Amino acid sequence: MRKNNWQRLAMAAPVAMTALTAAAQIPEGYYDALKGKKGAELKTAIHEIIKDAKVLEYGSGANHTWWGFYVTDNDSGYVVDRYSNNRVKFQSRGSVPGGMNIEHSFPKSWWGGSKRQAYKDLFNLMPSDSKANSSKGNYGMGIVTQTGGKGYYDNGCIKVGAGSEGFKVWQPSDEWKGDFSRGYMYMATAYQDYTWTNDQAFNSLQQGAYPTLKKWAYTLYIKWAKEDPVSKTETDRNEAVYGIQGNRNPYVDFPNLMEYVWGDSTNVPFNPETTVKSGEYSGGGTVTPPDPPAGEVPVYDEDFTQDEGGCTVTYDKKPESGLEIWQITDKYGWKANGYDSSTKTRHDADATLWLPELDLTDYSHATLTFSHAVNYCATPADYLSVVAKTSRGATTLTGITWPAGSSWAFNESGKVSLNDFAGQKVTIGFRYTSTTGTAPCWEIKQASVTAGGTNTGISEHEAGAGKAHGTAWTTGGHRADSHYKGLVIKNGKKYLNR
């Protein structure tokens, strides 16, 4: 954390922490499911609350990591770099400042490098000087005992070298030790169900839901977290990430929660209503969800000549010859064709290209647009269609502008309404069919979905008990499925799903 008057007061009188950080607003009822739990059971209960996050896409550009950093790690126009003492200015929002990288605190190689939620989670991502980033590598965090020589790195902020546990580690500066320790605790809890695959990971972690962090690690991180208490910089970041992802770091909200999970109080039931907090909190009562996104925002935007866009293909009828109907091309994007040029044969086929599932739960309206070309088909709408699939079933979309069917020229689809699917999760599919008589060629070069408006489903609600039928909402303002455990809102009242 950054030293300031607030922090010095907090270190002098930690019991006053709640009053000193009133700006940190923990959502009422958010942690109710933790009450009375301890040790391993408490850690799993925390996991259930924080495991799902609406992460930004990784990298630069609108609604990507650097778009988020502009809010979460911006100190009066300068990047907050916890890995170096460099002072680098932000440029336009979403762009990458010179000499900066995105650093994974928990290295991505620890879970095999797949681009899962942890890969994009802002609680695990920090802006970093590129040299410091490469020097840190995929080592775990610990005490560096090496003082020079081969493999040693010290930029005045972080150190990298042989550690006190007998293997190479990296060590943050004193002002950030608590921040990173609480970040590691978050990661070991939010992703306790991950499979760790890297040798470096097993220096710090063990497989399983508890304790996940090895004893030497959680002992050190608890020590560092006590020496470097929660600061306003840290609570502000917690609030900013919550506003983007919809989940929080509870080890920031409750500075002594770590003791109930790994420390000296694992046999003591935790009570979020009475414990020391970094912000205001009370169980039950009125629920105030986070502000939903304002204005029109891109939910999905892909140029298929550059990337497959996370699409998948399913078949209702696949040619016996094994012909692949949908194929990706660098020049035209996704291309569907039931004609086999090698045998000069048209095939009966029915194949759908699916975009990734899109989360429209926070929005009241949405629009699909795409660029496409159709050839060898006089009546494209008789063979081609676009469908929207939700948990309730699939619906064929209307209002699409179809090309004439006799040209390679790309045409815009027009604005296709997805308003009927706002407030839900939806998957868009491009369905292609062909016969032995007609085999259209359908090319889709680009597709995008934008959304806007508000759809939290929550205003003010009275406390209740028991269960009820109807749509359920989390206290963060998101739809809760039938498997969700914890506090939910149904028909204007609170219920606890166990």
Textual characterization of the structure:
The protein is α+β, with helices and mostly antiparallel strands and 498 residues long. Helix content is 19%, strand content 24%. It has twelve helices and 26 strands. The strands form seven sheets. Strands 9, 11, 12, 17, 20, 21 and 23 form a seven-stranded antiparallel sheet that branches. Strands 10, 15, 16, 18, 19 and 22 form a six-stranded antiparallel sheet that branches. A four-stranded mixed sheet has the order 5-8-7-6. Helix 7 crosses helix 9. The longest helix is centred in the middle third of the chain and has 14 residues, at 177-190. Residues 2-23, 284-294 and 456-469 have low confidence and may be disordered.
Topology of helices and strands:
Blueprint: H1 5-12, H2 17-20, H3 39-50, H4 65-72, E1 74-75, E2 78-79, E3 100-104, H5 117-120, E4 125-129, H6 130-136, E5 140-141, E6 153-154, E7 159-162, E8 168-171, H7 177-190, H8 201-204, H9 215-227, H10 232-245, H11 250-253, H12 257-261, E9 297-303, E10 312-317, E11 326-329, E12 333-337, E13 339-340, E14 345-346, E15 349-354, E16 358-359, E17 365-375, E18 384-390, E19 393-396, E20 411-412, E21 416-417, E22 425-434, E23 441-452, E24 472-474, E25 486-490, E26 493-497
Parallel strand pairs: 5-8
Antiparallel strand pairs: 1-2, 3-4, 6-7, 7-8, 9-23, 10-15, 11-12, 12-23, 13-14, 15-22, 16-22, 17-20, 17-21, 17-23, 18-19, 18-22, 24-25, 25-26
Helix pairs in contact: 7-9
